[in-house]
Amino acid sequence: MRIVIAEDDSLLRVGLTLLLRAESLDVVAAVGNADDFLAAVSDHAPDVAIVDVRMPPTHTDEGIVAAVEARRRRPELAVLVLSAYVEQAFATELFIHGGTRLGYLLKDRVGQVEEFLDALHRVAAGGTAIDPEVVAQMLVHTRPDTCLGRLSAREREVLTLMAEGLGNGAIAERLVVTDGAVHKHIRSIFAKLDLPPTDRTDRRVAAVLHYLKNANNLDH
Predict the structure, then answer these.
(1) Is residue 217 a contact partner of residue 100, using CB atoms and an 8 Å limit?
(2) Superfamily of domain 2-131
């Protein structure tokens, strides 16, 4: 796995590099700003990019903008975005521009090495990984009059865990139910969100994207 890191905090950048290399992962570049990140993506053709949300010069959304641009240039690139705290609009913007091979984690999660590496590998393998705290805050702010309002409490729990990137077996373990029960809930979620079977769309990804888009419609 070839990885590019874009993080302006030099201590975290070096720490991530050492951690990943200790796991026998190939960090081909570690840079501190968005321009150098895009150049590294072009030069090294990485499999995965780990990108900070806020980077120089304005420390606002440079990382997200660069991540979206990197995906435009290399659609197969997996991107794991790191943020110091929950920024719902940025998370939604990233996922709306592409459904798979994407992750959004809080920086605190890096200290939980096993969870961080699991998210990294999940994203690299084509899945999604959204920090549970991000999902929880999105769920709190979801408008009750969206399609998500059709879901039962258990179905919302299942969709929340789907948004985190968990598979059916992991969801069943987390909720202490059978795999069959999870499968039944997911079928119901697809039906209530009007997601019929199709060869053109991954319904699991479509459900999570629907969740993210509507979770960002806050009551004012």
Answers:
(1) no
(2) Response regulator (3.40.50.2300)
Q: Provide the token pair at 17.
A: 């590099």
Kindly report, residue by residue over 93-141, the tens digit of the pLDDT: 666 655 678 888 888 888 889 889 998 998 999 888 888 777 666 555 5
Alpha-carbon Rg for the chain in angstroms: 17
Task: Measure the CA angle with vertex 86, ends 173 and 67; round to 5°.
Answer: 95
Tokens describing residue 34: 């968005």
pLDDT in tens, 175-208: 999 999 999 999 998 888 887 776 555 677 677 7
CA distances from 87 to 47, 109, 127, 166 (A): 25, 15, 21, 21
Beta partners for 82?
52, 105
The CA-based dihedral angle spanning residues 132, 138, 140, 146, taken in that order and rounded to the nearest 10 degrees: -130
For the stretch 39-85, pLDDT in tens is 999 999 999 999 998 899 888 889 988 998 998 899 899 999 998 87
The CATH code for residues 141-215 is: 1.10.10.10
Could you tell me the two tokens for 143?
């408008």
The DSSP letter of residue 109 is G
In the chain, what are the domain boundaries?
2-131, 141-215
